[in-house]
Request: fold
Amino acid sequence: MAIKVIVFDFDGTLIDSNRLKYDAYFELFPRDDWHAQTIREVLTKMFEESRFIILEEILRRLNNNAGMDLQKRLRQLADRYNDIVLAGAKTCSEKPGAQLALAALAQQCKLYLSSTTPDAALKEVIRHRNWHGYFVDIFGYPHEKSRTIQHIIGREKVESSQVLVVGDGESDRKSAEENGCPFIQVKESFRFEELDEVLAGL
Reply:
């Protein structure tokens, strides 16, 4: 059955921003071994989670909210993190062939974007890159990926087998599996020029 809808992840899938997002956490805290080790441990376990969940866990482990409401501290850090990542995401390199693939695929399928990046920031980056015309809709945090795909299936009135999920992370694979959708993993060697061949084989 032909693919009618493609749901793309964003960071690490369409743009080469995973390193940027990773490094940004270290810029928020003092540059010493204790902070660095704590941040690395948290990111090793939960890098694909939203920045709010990650920062809350870092603060919990550091006990770094003394004298300040945790949620206030969390919002401050999340705002600083957003500024760093937003500036970088607007200008970092796209994955090879990503924009050309989006332009071509938008003529053949309904394209959606699903990311753990906060909704407003995600849409701002997409507008800055002038990619908004490729997507039917864009879903960032707090939308959960599996539920987003479920929503898209109902909205487009298609079978699960007609919705392809394309992403680089475990959360993308899991969201596809939970909804019975085919999945393509974007690895370092992946090139979007190959997507037409993959689609033809589905």
